[in-house]
Design a protein that fits this description.
Layout lengths: L1 H9 L14 H20 L23 E3 L3 H13 L7 E2 L3 E6 L6 E10 L2 E10 L2 H28 L7 H13 L2 H30 L8
Antiparallel strand pairs: 1-5, 2-3, 3-4, 4-5
Helix pairs in contact: 1-2, 2-4, 2-6, 4-5
Amino acid sequence: MVTCVALLARQSNTFPAEKPKHWCTNARVLLAIAPLVQLQGSNCGKTTVSMDAGLPAKTSSSELPAPFVAPPDKLAVVRRMRALSQRGKLPGFEETAEGFKALAYGWVFDFDLVFRIDDSPGGCTLTPALVLKRRMPAIVLALLAFSIWPGVWITDSMLSTYFTWYPHEFWKTCAWYLPITILPMPWVWKTAIRRSRLLAEESARELAERVRSELSVSSPTV
């Protein structure tokens, strides 16, 4: 049930302008782990699933918005972006030493869309970049690592209790449980990062368009 709720909440092509701020950390951790568990289970089972389902279509254009020139100076840009965030149009806004950043929503993990502001003729140049937020990946990695060994004990105890034919030798449970649990993890992790990055890029393009609109900068023609 947790996996289904997490997939419905995180696996979509478009994202709302903001996530509810009252979500607690425990709920975020559950939402982050559930898709990883679902992916790992799919890898061990017989059912073949498409890992590209729900992803934005790949295009030949750049994944991130191109740098653009805005007419005001750096302080004016930051001030207008703060006002934009107060209207709920720029989630996760924070002022940085080089400019500002906003929150680009991913699939399992979120990213920071960092705008570096440099002085240039006629105003200033805004250069966007995506940076993975490190807190949630660290929490997920720690929980996955610390849940493997207790899982061996629980699985061995359950099988020994409910199935009389199961051998009462702990090492035999370790022999099959640990490989099917540990070996898929690199693939699961790589998939989670890749899907999160792709959806964060789509979110970043939407945020960059809002920034352009606020600064009265026309979108580049394709």
